[in-house]
Amino acid sequence: MQKDKKKNHFEFIALMASLMSIVALSIDALLPAIPDIGKTIGNQDSTDLQQLITMIFLGFGIGQLILGPLSDSFGRKPIMYIGFSIFIMASFVCIFSTSLEWMLVGRILQGIGLSAPRTICISIIRDSHRGNYMARMMSFVTAFFILVPVIAPALGQFILNHFNWEYIFFTQLFFAVVVTIWFWKRQPETLHPEYKIPFNKHVFINGFSELIRYKEALVFTVLSGFITGSFMVYLSSAQHVFIDQYKIGDNFPYVFAGLAISIGVSTLLNGTLVVRFGMRRLALTSLAAFSVISSTYVALFWNTSNPSIFILVLFLGAQFFTLGFLFGNLRAIAMEPIGHIAGIGAALTGFISTIVAIPIATFIGGFMTDSALPLFMGFATCGTLALFIFLFMKRHRLYRKFNLKWS
Fold first, then answer.
1. In this model, does residue 315 exceed pLDDT 90?
2. What whole-number distance in Å separates Cα of residue 211 and Cα of residue 228?
3. How far is Cα 27 from Cα 24, in angstroms, rounded to an integer?
4. pTM metric for this prediction
């Protein structure tokens, strides 16, 4: 019995990670192909082509607002199928695009479709787990999920070496179909009928009204947006930095993979440590380290040319190691008080986080022309601001507990 339970537990983690991995595959496998896509659609401006990455995040934000509440009303599984159907249609839009505008339409639609696994997986985990154990589960799911960024650019490069860039989208479609069938066959519905919320025109107003009652959920959603936004700058500009600025050519997928491993290792450690130390303590410590590392880089290389590739990768590896303790914990802290509205809660927190992140990524990305310094300036600014807000919330939380204890 115990052996079967562990097997089911592992399969659940693997399935949730696989569903979310389609998101990573749709972003990271495309990175080596961005110059080729630019040639095909007649636009080779690196700043414009960064939108192929950032616009999929816009789709995530829009889709979450629609598909998240629907999953609270009609169940997690039916909405997951709808999301993947949108993703499949959007992939064909990208494949047959002949201009940047149509390609961006396809990427936004891909994001809308992929918002289903991105949001509903969190809802399914929240349906089944609580508190630090929820953070632990999200960490293990994320650790498996990180395997995709490790191999995705290499997979994209392999496809480019033997086929056209369109086959990257065909590969994404193949994996999406396989994982959807797995989900259909093996994952039971986690939203019990008694917890379904009737869908009506007031669902967003009521959901947002409920969310703002929990200041901690709202604040940590914004903090998650700061960190996500600064990381999106890296995702959208990594190809430009490593290939155009550092001229590493075909070695790009391996450097990208090594940095992804850094996040994966820390995420796995977080899954082990979070029950012992708590998600708030780990998140605060990591946020402080995130700010210090990036500020150190800015201080060392302010108004100078790029350092050696070894120094850059060393700083990025240390920076990304802290991210493994931030992504899952910040999201878990935000979701903890709103488990009773997990679907609309995940949708609204995801949307708010995305709306915060995209302007940050777009603004900083515009400066990523001939130096990696703006990337670390973004890390330092977002990290420091998030740290001060976190400390304020921590002080406010302790003060409130003290008053309750002695009142």
1. yes
2. 20
3. 5
4. 0.78
